[in-house]
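Help! Submission page says 'invalid entity' but I think these are all valid:
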Amino acid sequence: MPGPIQSLSRAAAIMRLLAGGERRLGLSEVATSLDLAKGTAHGILRTLQMEGFVEQDPESGKYQLGAELLRLGQSYLDVHELRARALVWADDLARASGETVYLGVLHQQGVLIVHHVFRPDDTRQVLEVGSMQPLHSTALGKVLLAYDPVARGELGDTALEAYTSRTLTDLTDIDAECALIRERGWADSIEETWEGVASIGALIQDRRRNPVGAVCISGAVERVCEDGFVRPSLVASVRSAARAISRDLGAGRF
Amino acid sequence: MPGPIQSLSRAAAIMRLLAGGERRLGLSEVATSLDLAKGTAHGILRTLQMEGFVEQDPESGKYQLGAELLRLGQSYLDVHELRARALVWADDLARASGETVYLGVLHQQGVLIVHHVFRPDDTRQVLEVGSMQPLHSTALGKVLLAYDPVARGELGDTALEAYTSRTLTDLTDIDAECALIRERGWADSIEETWEGVASIGALIQDRRRNPVGAVCISGAVERVCEDGFVRPSLVASVRSAARAISRDLGAGRF
DNA sequence: GACAGGCGGTCGACATTGTCGACCGGTGTG
DNA sequence: CACACCGGTCGACAATGTCGACCGCCTGTC
């Protein structure tokens, strides 16, 4: 039976719709947005509600995502092997560099943050685990673009948004950048997504040399860069952490 | 069409199964665990995989939860009104008390942590957002048991585990404790779940006085308690924070 | 090295199952 | 007060998901 199960795909679409809209949605909104009969949408929503994936505001009757998703998302992190292996190395990298550390994996047309170490002894920061970053303008994303053909494929049909004046939006520019990244073995992003923020990323691969994710450090451009380029010592730290994680993932094989 | 959609319920069961077992599971394991034909389980898993809710290890062919769950779980937090309103109050409470702050809501037979503020300037701590705590042995849980009939109902059929020698496992003891909690307006838990840890919790209610969650502080029993009882000043802080959050939720109505 | 047993995955017939659109009662609004 | 819209229900219909046998592959074993 090759072919997705219709009701499941529709349920997934409903959950994504609820995740996308910031506010709660009514039954009719859901049904019309996805071209479903109201009865059909209701049946799916009712089941999702029973399972805890969706909750209904008893007052307005509108729907939003449910708590079970948070619980399962946490379970995903618990099982995630890359994340487990990388925890200690990411900590070390944050301490050594004094900057924020992110660990990301390719997910759809972006990078999903699976681990986040705050910059040591700093002001309040919000945890970004579970959020997404663009592929074409971040160090994490560009590393994956350079090494993961799937990531490069995902980029094919999406329009590239310019977040700042330094964002690369032309595909040929991106490809040239990727060639450079492959050649030197690391990626940077200087104010390409957020003004004032620069980051340096490197690839993590598994025992069979497949790309499985990326690490990066990210911080104020004044600290991360020097004379318009990222500091070589920070690059070395990031690459060394990426190698350590990759080696850790490959343990047991050799 | 009152009645859950079969394929959806089965998909949810599969995801819960994958979340429960620490390791990855094979197709046959999933099918036999849930009494499904292999073909059926495969169809569901394939669809879940397409949607990103499940991933398959290409090497072993075994399945685990997927990244989309993490993303949707994060979206749940983003939309969560209680959490949004409580963020700043929880921060204040942590600063004022010097202890860890948790914010939890009832979910199935437990308390789901939706916000967690680390104890100020302390050693490394792991974020527990998305994890569950038992109802009958934590301050958060006992608050909900005392005020939320649904929570009390959930307790009916589950055996109460004794985590320490101080855990209440008899239902009549629990009900007496709940009556006390309702009378004085707050709950505590002194080494009832973890040795050496005490916590103090209070109820959060919405504009219609329905229980919607609870806040608590949690810390070493030596700091939180005095002469075998929790410190009244900490109780006052927690109750004040709970009132502030409740008031915040009720804003716009009055 | 041939076999057996396990795996993940496919296939096609069947009827169970989810889908559809009309319909209901309640609510707020012009 | 009627209208429009909401969330929710119902029953007929056939599209849909389910089932169990089957396939090719790999692994371990005798």
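Support: the input was valid. A stray whitespace character was the problem, and the output above is from the cleaned input. Chain B touches chain A through 56 residues (CB under 8 Å).
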